[in-house]
Amino acid sequence: MRQYFLRRLLLLPITLLGITFIAFLITRFVPGGPLEQAVAEKQAFAGRGTGRGMENNSVLSPEEELQLKRFYGLDQPFLPAYVAWLGIWPRPINSQVVLVPFGEKSVETQLVYEVSNTGDAPLVLRIPATISLNVDGSPSITLDPAKASQAVAVFAKEHNVEANSLEPRVQAGWTARLLKTDNPVTATTASNQPVKVDIFQLKIDGLLQGNLGRSYLRNQPVLDIIVEKLPVSAWFGLWTLVLTYGICIPLGIVKALRHRTAIDNTTSLLLFIGYALPGYILAVILQYAFAFHLKWLPHSGFVSEGFSQLGFWQKTGDLLWHTFLPLVCLTFGTFALMTMLMKNTLMDNLALDYVRTAVAKGVSFRSAVINHAFRNSLVPIATSFGNSVGLLLTGSFLIEKIFDIDGVGLLSYSSLVERDYPVFLGLLTCSAFLLLLGNIISDVCVAWVDPRIRFDK
After folding, report:
1. Cα(422)–Cα(419) distance, rounded to whole angstroms?
2. 71 backbone dihedrals φ, ψ, rounded to 5°
3. What is the rounded average pLDDT of the residues 90-103?
4. Which band of pLDDT confidence, cut at 50, 70 and 90, is reported for residue 250?
5. Which pLDDT value is given to residue 214?
6. Domains of the chain (ranges plus CATH)?
7. Where are the beta strands (DSSP E) in 164-235?
8. Can you give the pTM of this predicted structure?
9. For residue 381, which of 279, 274, 249 has the smallest C-alpha distance?
């Protein structure tokens, strides 16, 4: 069985690779992407209509188009872009376009190096450099080590960063090439147009290095955005997991032992009403009744204003106060499925011969239920337990929207609608990983509940 789980663990990254490959492929070729939207907005602003594609993109200069494509990660073909996103192939960073006047052999410029991309405004360092044009028209870049070291020292002193580790990264890997245009211009071309030189660094920095990209709209690292929203969804996910299994398993046992009694019939009625009623409809009803009409509970938000100034127990009470209504809406619909699964499985096991044999040999009915039938009835429950791990990152868009809770569910929806593909891919990668890990956890739970089950193949 150890070899089985080892194979499952080894298959996990391969499966995850396939999921991300398909998702990345869809985001690259789906119509109406972020680049098309940016072009359409600029065309509309320039009075050229609201075209949906790149057919009429003369409103953009070649360097603007290059910067947009590079910002959205569309400057490379699909396969190199995907392996760069994975972090096994270098990608261009710190890119800029420098104009070299025609007839000039070299020009002084400043290279922009992004030191930190955390926060709303990236922290950048400017380094003096010289762009030269060779005889064949190809550009080359030269950095003066002394001037670069001086710029790093001044920057390190102003921003309190380590200069020794920063200086080698700043001076390494700069590449210069002519900007590709419809009418290429070289140093030997008899034209008054300046030569446009594209300058950038190559760096391996992707998923394997813990970098999920940068949000198009929020201009923040995707990982930071997910970490910021994760506590809210994890809070509701943990409570949903605890309440679902903590209530449904005991309730299913009671319903099985009290089959066709008043308790069984009443709880079945309530459970199927909750199962038939969508969570967002229940949210609107409860919000109107308990928040707007009776004013017993808050109608929106995850915490109250001034939450940070409260004491520990006051914070706990405020958090539970805001959690109650959304949590009821998230869990109520899942109670019916889990409870009826527990009830029906236990009733099937109680009707089997081994339970009757145990009772005939003098074992009490209570002991036969707890020590024999109950454990065997947990196998279907254990099968679905690992999949509940995904609740920690999924959330519910509609519930979060109704109660104005800024969680992962709302983030997933907004990133998809707004074509913020780095955020969408980051959330999909994390969710897929948790789902695959949950499937392995389900197998572990099944093997623990029923030792007769062996995973030998």
Report:
1. 9
2. -65, -40
3. 81
4. very high
5. 84
6. 90-209 (no CATH), 222-449 (1.10.3720.10)
7. 174-178, 195-203
8. 0.81
9. 249
